[in-house]
Write a structure and sequence with these properties.
It is a single chain. The chain is built from 34 helices and 29 strands. 53% of the residues are buried. The longest helix has 23 residues. Helix 10 packs parallel to helix 17, helix 15 crosses helix 16 and helix 29 packs across helix 30. An 8-stranded parallel sheet has the order 1-8-2-7-6-3-5-4, with helices on both faces. A 6-stranded parallel sheet has the order 9-14-13-10-12-11, with helices on both faces. Strands 19-18-22-21-20 form a 5-stranded mixed sheet. It is α/β, with parallel strands linked by helices. The protein is globular, with a radius of gyration of 30 Å.
Length: 934
């Protein structure tokens, strides 16, 4: 049962501190004034032996809340001379640097405690990761640390180390740090099985302690931490919810009031001026971008501006060497950095000292991520976390503002936890086989204790065992040999051969090797390199930018891509696509609801319905009603300030203009007050929404975009191609699944390839010249072909021949130990891995339900995309909770389409071109709107 600590514990601070060992109690009172909220609830829970999940911001003392209880027990054992040579506590974190931080932060209090009681000096702390020297590992075997600090990969290896694993048998506690980072990936799935294997070999019931920053829902993450018992009942867990104990201030900023017409140079100049002012007002500022290249670009510009001394400014991201990153972290901790620019590498709980303010350039794409990043500032409970979200386009403005509102309200988007990953299962089944001979039923029971495998079928388990045992014909001819033996008669399995342990130890883990893909033209000319993750997004016919020029993707083999030059065509895949984080589905739904509210306010205000239309006694409102429905606009008014009869407005001339201004101002004030946006941002959002509102009214469309209305727009581009644009703010994972299913349906109907362009707020099907007069009817046929019952099968057919599946198959094959990364002491190159994987994939496609290929399809559809939520959306449509609304924009795309259409031009080289395109599209819209009133 999952219980909440605030319902269980009402102890006073003095009562809780009295629960600790006297030495620890004395030390704590000297060091701290009082307990923090997470400590207040976590310490009693852990001391009572409860599984405990602690969720609280960085700097709130959650790590100490876990270790205080454990150190208290170890100190008592040390004083009683009962501390044995074995591991009592295992601390697991996803970052090696975080492990080193914890070791340092543990040794310091232990040294201080030793000064109070010499027996505390007996407590040993050790770090074991892939970087730990062999001599240190041997020393640990002789005198094991009482607190072992390690990573998810290392703990899985240690579980199969015959001598060291014996030191775990009496372990009492396991701490999983940064669980919000782990649970959403296959590293977390891998760890969940390691915890079950660890529990299986332990004589004690392990007390599991999870430490997390802001995430949701806590109950599901608690189940991930503790798993289930053999009867399928969830294990008990106490949830300490202290996510919102720190004061927080977040604001959305637009560098300019008119973001559409601002030139790129002016927009950048003002953005850097804002950042410069923030840096100079604070001692230390942490700046987040959404890409590594963006981080480098910001550092370059700030250094040219001489905002701070050169040695007080640096970049920190995963493409930099470990030595550089550690140097930056150390200088941050020592207060010698004024500004650090990062992508994602510093959103985790590395101890980087005191940060005064956080700047986020562009949308962080999820509320939880926004809170985690902003939470890096104000590194104590007393200090306010201050964040500045700077948006550079209209869609980011809306995302950031909605994010601020929800973050300040404490409403967080849901985490995605992968389930039934057969490649990770294969690794652990080999690990179990290495440990000892296993009964299939026993292994199945152990696996299903993991939250991630609670629904695993025995059939799936047996298929993985058959693969691992080499029972699929034809694989051995391609050097895929059995790693285990599996006797179907006795229903047992065990390790096969003397190399099984070495293969397991040198190939374990879930993070794939990534390399650059070389790009050549068909005549063999080298063009440049792209990331492998970018390659997997490409389909034949896709257009992308490389080195400032546009190319059409033709094919790939291994880690080589073949293209042809196609100057002048609009890219379908942005160059930064592979680095961008996807918008969360929950945040997208909130944006849909905001659209609904603002469009309703516009409708009421501009038509005089309800409380809109200036029912506040504003001068000119009555005059507007007396004048009636005057067409046209007053002399000298710009076209984007007119009020026309096609709006359905009851006002005209000067009165109409005054009403328009009044309504916009009222909405802008609402946005500033409720969504924590500055004045520039608020007015830019209003103009963005108002442009779409008027555009739809000109077309005679009175429905508006919302979370319930999914607008489908027909647009004929400059090349005469028919495009269907689906306006749905579901995030890229859901939109990608929907787009590919609809594109496959369109391909069946039209008997031709259909190009797809996807963003977080829309997706576009490029049909070519569809050759039909009635596009509404064609759109209806395409939409009706896809439903909640068949989207999985349609999507599967759509992705089978894509680069995405070929790349992901290699990842799954290496995790499944089908394609080895290391063999007999030699490292297998990624190019060789990819070549082997492509050969094997063609073979596996001829096998029925081959587990590695099945896992590849599952990973693409459920983890990379989100077919489950896509099914949910379609079910809503079928049951009337959502609906599609078709309209034809013809040769002028609606304002909400513009970012999608020009998204490919986000390359740095073409930034000015991109902004000019946006402005040109906007002017087309304004002329269309203005022309309606002539």
């Amino acid at each position: 049962m999952i219980r909440h600590a605030d319902e269980l514990y009402t102890y006073r601070d003095e009562d809780i501190i009295d629960m600790l060992d006297p030495v620890l109690k004395e030390w704590f009172r000297k060091r701290f004034r009082s307990l923090t909220p997470p400590q207040r609830h976590a310490i009693p829970s852990i001391l009572q032996g409860n599984n405990t999940l602690v969720a609280s911001p960085t700097g709130s003392g959650k790590t100490l809340s876990a270790f205080l209880s454990i150190i208290s027990e170890l100190v008592r054992l040390a004083r009683s001379d009962m501390l044995e040579d074995k591991v009592y506590c295992i601390y697991i974190s996803p970052l090696r640097s975080l492990n080193n931080d914890i070791a340092k932060n543990l040794r310091e209090p232990l040294d201080e405690l030793s000064a109070l009681d010499a027996s505390v000096g007996k407590i040993r702390v050790g770090v074991r990761t892939g970087d730990t020297p062999q001599s240190e590992r041997a020393r640990m075997l002789r005198r094991p640390p009482h607190i072992l600090i390690t990573t998810p990969e290392s703990i899985a290896i240690v579980l199969c180390a015959p001598r060291f694993r014996e030191r775990f048998r009496d372990a009492r506690w396991v701490i999983v740090d940064e669980i919000h980072e782990l649970c959403s990936s296959k590293r977390g799935v891998h760890l969940s099985l390691s915890l079950e294997r660890l529990q299986e070999m332990c004589t004690n019931r392990l007390v599991r302690i999870g430490l997390s920053a802001t995430l949701h829902p806590l109950e599901e993450v608690a189940r991930f931490l503790v798993g289930y018992d053999d009867a399928g009942e969830e294990r008990d867990c106490v949830v300490v919810d202290a996510r919102f104990v720190k004061p927080m201030s977040i604001v959305t900023i637009s560098p300019v009031r008119d973001i559409v017409h601002a030139k790129a140079d002016e927009l950048n100049r003002r953005m850097y001026a804002i950042i410069r002012d923030i840096i100079r007002r604070n001692k230390t500022t942490l700046i987040f971008t959404n890409t590594r290249s963006g981080a480098e670009r910001v550092v370059y510009h700030l250094s040219k501006m001489n905002v701070v001394d050169a040695d007080e400014l640096a970049a920190h991201h995963s493409s930099l060497s470990r030595e550089i990153r550690l140097d930056v972290e150390d200088r941050l901790k020592n207060g010698r950095m004024r500004a650090v620019v990062t992508s994602t590498s510093l959103e985790l709980g590395i101890d980087i000292g005191s940060i005064d303010a956080v700047v986020q350039i562009g949308s962080p794409k999820s509320i939880a991520r926004c809170i985690q990043r902003v939470g890096r500032s104000g590194h104590s409970l007393e200090l306010e976390s201050r964040g500045y979200l700077i948006a550079m386009d209209n869609d980011d403005l809306v995302e950031d503002a909605v994010m601020c509102m929800n973050a300040m309200r404490g409403k967080i988007d849901s985490v995605h936890i992968p389930t039934n990953c057969l490649d990770v299962l294969a690794q652990h089944l080999v690990g179990l086989a290495i440990e000892r001979r296993q009964r299939v039923e026993d292994a199945y029971r152990l696996v299903r204790r993991s939250y991630c495998y609670r629904d695993l079928s025995m059939e799936s388990m047996r298929r993985v065992l058959m693969y691992l045992a080499g029972m699929y014909k034809g694989l051995e001819g391609h050097k895929v040999y059995g790693k285990i033996w599996y006797d179907e008669g006795t229903d047992e399995f065990g390790k096969r051969g003397s190399t099984a342990r070495m293969i397991y130890a040198t190939n374990i883990g879930t993070i794939p090797d990534e390399v650059a893909v070389k790009v050549y033209t068909r005549d063999g000319k080298w063009v440049g390199s792209i990331e492998e993750e970018f390659l997997e997004r490409l389909s034949p016919g896709d257009i992308f930018v490389l080195g400032g020029k546009t190319y059409e993707f033709i094919s790939s083999k291994g880690l080589t891509a073949v293209v042809r030059s196609v100057e002048g065509l609009r890219p379908t895949i942005p160059s930064w696509f592979s680095e961008m984080l996807p918008l969360s589905f929950d945040l997208g739904e909130e944006i849909g609801r905001l659209r609904d509210e603002i469009f309703s306010m516009l409708e009421q205000g501009m038509t005089g319905e309800g409380e809109g239309g200036g029912g506040e006694g504003e001068e000119g409102v009555g005059n507007g009603r007396r004048r009636g429905r005057r067409r046209g606009q007053s002399k000298g008014r710009s076209s984007n300030s007119s009020s026309s009869s096609s709006d359905g407005a009851v006002y005209g001339g000067d009165a109409g203009y005054r009403v328009e201004v009044m309504v916009k101002d009222r909405i802008a004030r609402m946005i500033m007050e409720r969504l924590y946006a500055d004045e520039n941002a608020a007015h830019a959002i209003v103009e963005y929404m108002y442009a779409q509102y008027r555009f739809l009214r000109v077309l005679g469309i009175h429905e508006h975009p919302s979370d319930r209305n999914l607008m489908v727009e027909h647009y004929v581009d400059e090349h005469g191609r028919d495009n269907l644009i689906f306006h749905c703010v579901f995030g890229r994972r859901v939109n990608d699944a929907l787009a590919r299913a609809y594109a496959y349906a369109a391909r069946l109907i039209l008997r031709r390839n259909v190009a797809v362009t996807v963003s977080d707020s829309a997706f576009m099907l490029t049909l070519g010249d569809a050759g039909v007069e009635d596009m509404a009817s064609l759109a209806g046929r395409i939409i009706s072909t896809v439903n909640s019952s068949n989207i999985r099968s349609l999507l599967l057919n759509a992705i089978k021949s894509t680069e995405m599946v070929r790349t992901r198959f290699r990842h799954c094959a290496t995790r499944s130990l089908m394609v080895l990364r290391n063999y007999k002491g030699y490292e297998v190159t990624v190019a060789r891995q990819q070549t082997n994987a492509e050969i094997l994939m063609r073979l596996c496609e001829r096998l029925d339900n081959f587990p590695v290929l099945e896992e590849t399809y599952r990973e693409v559809m459920e983890d990379l995309m989100d077919v489950r939520r896509a099914e949910h959306v379609l079910r809503d449509v079928e049951e009337g909770r959502r609906r599609f609304v078709f309209y034809s924009a013809r040769d002028v795309p609606s304002p909400f389409s513009h970012m999608l259409i020009v998204s490919g031009y986000s390359d740095v080289v073409l930034m000015e071109d991109r902004r000019e395109m946006l402005e040109a599209l906007h002017e087309l819209v304004m002329r269309r709107i203005g022309g309606s009133s002539d």
